[in-house]
C-alpha cells in the first residue's frame, strides 16, 4: 500500500522491486532506509511525486524476487551469513589482489587507483570485523529468541542489555562502509573504466560494482527487515 508515511526501507522490504526505483534516482534504500521519500528528495533535483508514481507501478516490473519479509528471523540470519557474508569473504581478497595489480600497471596514468585500493582495503577490514560480531553475538541471540518463542520459554537478559544495542552498532558500521563506497563511486565515475583499460581493469571495476550491489542488498535485509523484527520480537518477552 502506497502511503507517504512509509519509509524507503519499508517500501523495499515489502517488495524488493521497489529497489529498482530507488537505484534509478540514486536514493540509498539500505543504510538510509529509515527516511521517507520526501526526506530523501529534500536536497535532490527530482520530485517526490515522480518517485511515488513509479513506486505505484512496481507490480508491473519483472518479478522473481524472494519475499524475505515473510521469512522466519533465524532463517533470514542464516541466509545473510551463508550468502552475503560468504560473498564478502570470497571476493574481498580477490579484489584487493586485482586492485594492487592495477596500481602497479596503471597507477602512473590513473593515480586514483591508489585511493580506490586504500578505501576498498579499509572496507574489507571493516566488514570482516563487522561480520564476526554478527556471527558470534547478534545472530546467535536472534536465533535464541526465535527458539524460545517457539517453545514458549522466556530468555535471560543478554550481557549487552537489549538487542537494540548491537543493532545500533551494526547500523552505524553499515553507514561507515556505505559512505566509503560513495567515495569509490565518485573516484570510478560510477564504475566507468577509462579507454585504455585492460581486461583486468574492466573486470575489477565490474567486480567492485557487483560487490557494492550485493552489499546494498545485504544491508537492506538487515537494516530494514532482520533488525526491526528482532527488536519487536524481544519486546514480546517479559523479563
From TrEMBL:
Domain Hemerythrin-like span(s) in chain numbering: 82-230
Principal location: cytoplasm
Subcellular location: Cytoplasm
Key words, A-Z: Cytoplasm, Iron, Metal-binding
Record carries keyword Metal-binding: yes
GO molecular function, one term: metal ion binding
NCBIfam families assigned: FeS_repair_RIC
Source organism of the structure: Kaistella antarctica
GO cellular component terms, semicolon-separated: cytoplasm
Protein name listed in UniProt: Iron-sulfur cluster repair di-iron protein
Gene3D superfamilies membership: nmb1532 protein domain like, SP0561-like
Amino acid at each position: 500500500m502506497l502511503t507517504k508515511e512509509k519509509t524507503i526501507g519499508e517500501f523495499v522490504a515489502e517488495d524488493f522491486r521497489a529497489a529498482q526505483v530507488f537505484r534509478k534516482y540514486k536514493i540509498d534504500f539500505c543504510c538510509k532506509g529509515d527516511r521517507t521519500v520526501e526526506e530523501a528528495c529534500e536536497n535532490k533535483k527530482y520530485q517526490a511525486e515522480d518517485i511515488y508514481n513509479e513506486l505505484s507501478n512496481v507490480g508491473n516490473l519483472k518479478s522473481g524476487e524472494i519475499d524475505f519479509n515473510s521469512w522466519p528471523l533465524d532463517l533470514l540470519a542464516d541466509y545473510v551469513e551463508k550468502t552475503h557474508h560468504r560473498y564478502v569473504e570470497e571476493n574481498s581478497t580477490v579484489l584487493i589482489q586485482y586492485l594492487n595489480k592495477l596500481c602497479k600497471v596503471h597507477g602512473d596514468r590513473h593515480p586514483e587507483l591508489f585511493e580506490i585500493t586504500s578505501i576498498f582495503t579499509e572496507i574489507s577490514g571493516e566488514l570482516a570485523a563487522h561480520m564476526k560480531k554478527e556471527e558470534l553475538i547478534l545472530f546467535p541471540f536472534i536465533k535464541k529468541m526465535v527458539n524460545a518463542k517457539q517453545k514458549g520459554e522466556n530468555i535471560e537478559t543478554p550481557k549487552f542489555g537489549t538487542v537494540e544495542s548491537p543493532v545500533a552498532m551494526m547500523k552505524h558500521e553499515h553507514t561507515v562502509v556505505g559512505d566509503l563506497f560513495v567515495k569509490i563511486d565518485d573516484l570510478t565515475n560510477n564504475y566507468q573504466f577509462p579507454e585504455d583499460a585492460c581486461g583486468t581493469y574492466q573486470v575489477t571495476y565490474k567486480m567492485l560494482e557487483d560487490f557494492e550491489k550485493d552489499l546494498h542488498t545485504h544491508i537492506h535485509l538487515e537494516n530494514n527487515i532482520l533488525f526491526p523484527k528482532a527488536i519487536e520480537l524481544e519486546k514480546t518477552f517479559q523479563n
